Prior knowledge:
The structure holds two protein chains of two kinds.
Chain A: E1 4-9, E2 18-22, H1 36-62, E3 78-83, E4 89-91, H2 102-109, E5 112-119, H3 122-126, E6 139-140, E7 143-144, E8 162-164, E9 167-169, H4 189-200, E10 218-222, E11 225-230, E12 237-242, H5 246-250, H6 257-260
Parallel strand pairs in A: 1-5
Antiparallel strand pairs in A: 1-2, 3-4, 3-5, 6-7, 8-9, 10-11, 11-12
Chain B: E1 5-9, H1 15-22, E2 27-32, H2 37-46, H3 48-54, E3 58-63, H4 72-76, H5 81-85, H6 96-99, E4 105-109, H7 115-128, E5 135-141, H8 145-158, E6 161-164, H9 167-171, E7 179-185
Parallel strand pairs in B: 1-2, 1-4, 2-3, 4-5
Antiparallel strand pairs in B: 5-7, 6-7
Helix pairs in contact in B: 1-3, 7-8
Amino acid sequence: MKNILIAAECSQLWAKLHKIRIQKRQEEASANGLSHRDIQQQIVDYINMYMDMNVNINSDNANTNTNTNMHQYSEDDISVELYHPNGNFVPLLGNENNHDNDASLDDAFGTRIRCIVHLTTEEDKKNNNCNDPSIRIHQDGDRAHVPLLIKGRYFEYNPDGMDFAGKTLIVKEEVNNQEEDGTGLNVWDGSLLLARFLEKYPNKVSSEHLLLHHLSSVLYCTGTHLVLYCTTSGAARVLRFKLHCINALDNNACSLQRLTSFHSSVCCLLYTYCKY
Amino acid sequence: MKGKTVLELGSGPALVGISAAILGANEVILSDLAYTLPLVQSNIHLNQNAINDGGCNSIKCMEIDWFKPPPIETLSSCWSLSSNLDTNVDINSNTSTLINSFPQVMLIADCIWLEGLVNPLMNTVEQLSHAGHTEVIITYQRRGKAAHDVFWKRLRDAFTSIEELDTMEMCGLEKPEFMSLFICHR
């Protein structure tokens, strides 16, 4: 087997992909190369090393002994799902018969493999849950009662108010709610992503915004009017639109710096025909 | 010009729906289980000035249980008359009134994490959206194989068009690899 590079998602530990290089270890060298279990073990080692580093960094920053336990994960604490090029997830362990040697793993997945790593936490163990979140569900009928185990937040969130489209958006959450299903009172990252997306593309919910189709356009604001100079076809044309909410335009993301430089209160979005 | 009618499913504290109202949606309905609605009302109240400034004519919350999705007539009674008059559909059609009962935009943020909830959610989406009228915008985090597989199957079955957006390339909005934003049409 060649060395392989694992791009690992682990939403319980980190926000961005981590690249883990899996190499044949000297003491494990054999004619058959790495086994699936060897790969699993190296991922476990990487995660334990990551945990150690974070504990040390936190301790250094705080300059005190933190209460963070030096938790070490074992193979049984971690399940890995490999992303197959055909779009399916395949467990690394458990159905080796489907890819029962290292050569077939290479053939099927290549040497750059994306995967999702799921951790079993101490809380899961107490609750006798297994480490596959897809089946880590205690169900009462069709209702699930296990809180979502996502730690940390990727997007900025402030319950006291966030800048949003030139206004202050205040959305409170109740983080320690354990009644009901315990998830409906939290602000999740997907909400923040969608809100920020709508902020960039307010026309998705409002008709009072314009999309610029002329990338060579120049525009500026005068009072409550937006003036758009279109310089396509070699002839300048002036279009005038009366807008109800210039303020909303004020806060759209700027992608066309050349246009936005004409007036600080107007920003333009890059409009990609083939993708939008 | 008017903004659009927006329904958010699984709104939780309603960050997305309130954002839509601030950005100028004409009418917004926020929906979730009953236990969330007091928090939703409170958050609406906190943002009332910004919502008014955005030009939103109506923002309401209602209980929608994905296991018992309401008939579209229930939603119809929540929209105000002004929305129903603002229509792009064929007004000569007998179905125009019914079509305007459906939202023009359906927002679903981070609602897929349990396999057992995917089918009820997608049943609700199908019941409360209309082909050619409703655009469905979904953000999604992959959290497990079983839920992912069911979600993808239902997504492909429900929509004729599913577009995953590269928000970084489109508008400089960076997101983690494990998060997706889909725009779907039936």
